[in-house]
Amino acid sequence: MELIGLKPLYSSMIMQNLKRTKFSVTINNAIFELIYFIDSVPHTLAIGVRNENLFFMVEVKKGFIINPYLGKKFGLIYKILGLSPNGASSFSPKNFYDEINKGIPSTTSPKNTPKPYDIAAYRPKVEESHKIYFCGWLDNNVRNEKVRPKNLIKTQQWLDQEAYEMCKKYNISSCWSPHKSKEKSITKPTSILKK
Predict the structure, then answer these.
(1) How far does the chain reach from its first CA to its final CA, in angstroms?
(2) What are the residues facing 194 on neighbouring strands?
(3) Neighbour-count burial for 162-186, b at 16+ CB within 10 Å, e otherwise
(4) How far apart are CA 141 and CA 119, in angstroms?
């Protein structure tokens, strides 16, 4: 199935050099939060409803093609949408993605770039997944240590490929906290290196 609504959004992201963007789509009064990742091949679309504990990722292949199969998630989506199994509805996974497609914005802006804590729910298989607030960089060369592979994976999953590459090359770790009060703005990893 083609999610043609992603095409103009993708163009808008490319024009602004954005690798990830977030938006929401309302279906039957249920608000689905989505994050579109174009910094991976294939691209990925994360879909979730926080208060319903629904989170899943869909691969977006060349031509904005997805596999509409929802498996066990379809029952939960059906419930979230307030549909009755005994009703006259012929709602299907294709219908669900058609509604998503209609709600995809054609443009975005840097203010819609997701923060690591927005991404954490969709990519929880990282070290210390409860630490969702970025709080800085650590130059491991100063302490004569090596960046841990698990930290590199978290950097790649929650930040981006560019940060991952810099951290790997310059032996830098990303630092995280479970406390929002410790959150800092994200800079390039190399910003901490002494000139």
Answers:
(1) 51
(2) none
(3) ebbebbeebbbbbebbeeeeebeeb
(4) 29
Name residues whose C-beta falls within 8 Å of residue 125's C-beta, 6 or more positions apart in sequence: none
Task: Name the residue with tokens 């060349």.
Answer: 62
Which parts of the chain register pLDDT below 70?
Answer: 85-89, 195
Residue type, 56: F
pTM of the model: 0.85
- 103, 136, 133: which is closest to 118 by C-alpha? 133
Q: How far is CA 11 from CA 2, 7, 31, 129, in A?
A: 16, 6, 25, 32
One-letter-per-residue 3-state SS of the chain: CECCCHHHHHHHHHHCCCCEEEEEEEECCEEEEEEEECCCCCEEEEEEEHHHCEEEEEEEECCCECCCCCCCHHHHHHHHCCCCCCCCCCCCHHHHHHHHHHHCCCCCCHHHCCCHHHHHCCCCCCCCCCCCEEEEEEECCCCCCCCCHHHHHHHHHHCCHHHHHHHHHHCEEEEEECCHHHCCCCCCHHHHCCC
Do the beta carbons of residue 67 and residue 58 sit within 8 Å? yes
pLDDT at 85: 64
pLDDT at 124: 84
Which amino acid, residue 5?
G
